[in-house]
Design brief:
alpha/beta, nine-stranded mixed beta sheet, 11 strands, 39% helix
C-alpha cells in the first residue's frame, strides 16, 4: 500500500506542476504582465481541485471563516478548510463554519522560501515567530484539537539541508505537502536531483490521509 501511495503521489505532483506551468505559459502569449495575486489564485484553485477529488462523502472544501462560539471570535480568512456538515453561511466561494466542524485548515502557497520557513532575518539571526509560523499562530486558536493545520505548496526553495527543512516544517504545521523541492547544492552534492517531486513523500501522505478521513 505504501508503494501505491508513493507512485500516486509522484504522478499527482507531475500533474499539478504541469497545470501550474500551463497557466504561466499562457501568460507568455499575452502582452499582460505576470500578476502574482492572480497566479496565487490560480494555483489555489488547482490545489483545491486536487484536494476535493480525494475527499470522502460528507466533507466540504472551500475558503472559509471559522466562528468560535465560546470566545465569540471569528478567524482570519483561511485559504481552504475541510469541514463536515452544513455551514452556518455558504456563498459561491466562501463558507462560514463553526469551529467544531473543522477537520483541517490549509495554507496554500505558490512557493515558499528560506524566510517563509525559518523566519525573517534580523542581523545574524532569524525571527522564528515570523513567516509561516506567524500565519499559523493567527489561526491556531480556531483549530480544534483533533484537526490538522496543513501547508500545501507547489514549490519549495531553501538553501538549508532537507533534514533541517523537514524539522522546521514539522514545528510550524501539523502536516505539509510539497509538490516540488528545488534542492540546494549541499543536497545535490549527495547525489540528489536538482528538482524533487513529492518531497519527503509529503503529497503521498496527504493523499492517504484524505482517503482515510472520517
Amino acid at each position: 500500500m505504501e508503494e501505491l501511495y508513493e507512485t500516486l503521489g509522484y504522478a499527482k505532483c507531475v500533474e499539478l506542476s504541469k497545470k501550474s506551468r500551463t497557466f504561466w505559459d499562457m501568460l507568455k502569449l499575452s502582452d499582460s504582465r505576470k500578476n502574482a495575486p492572480v497566479g496565487g489564485a490560480v494555483r489555489e484553485g488547482i490545489a483545491k481541485d486536487f484536494i476535493r477529488e480525494l475527499l470522502p462523502p460528507g466533507f466540504g472544501l472551500k475558503s472559509d471563516l471559522i466562528l468560535d462560539a465560546k470566545s465569540k471570535m471569528i478567524s482570519p480568512q483561511c485559504d481552504a478548510i475541510i469541514y463536515r456538515g452544513v455551514p452556518l453561511l455558504e456563498f459561491t466561494d466562501i463558507v462560514v463554519v463553526e469551529k467544531e466542524q473543522v477537520k483541517a485548515i490549509f495554507e496554500i502557497k505558490a512557493y515558499i522560501d528560506q524566510t517563509d520557513i525559518f523566519g525573517a532575518r534580523s542581523g545574524n539571526t532569524r525571527n522564528p515567530n515570523s513567516g509561516l509560523a506567524l500565519v499559523f499562530n493567527r489561526r491556531k486558536g480556531f483549530q480544534p484539537v483533533e484537526a490538522s493545520y496543513i501547508l500545501f505548496t507547489f514549490a519549495l526553495h531553501s538553501g538549508s539541508p532537507d533534514a533541517e527543512v523537514r524539522k522546521r516544517l514539522e514545528e510550524v504545521c501539523d502536516s505539509y505537502a510539497v509538490v516540488l523541492r528545488w534542492e540546494p547544492r549541499i543536497e545535490q552534492k549527495k547525489g540528489k536531483e536538482p528538482a524533487i517531486y513529492n518531497f519527503d513523500n509529503s503529497v503521498s501522505r496527504l493523499i492517504e490521509w484524505l482517503r482515510n478521513l472520517s
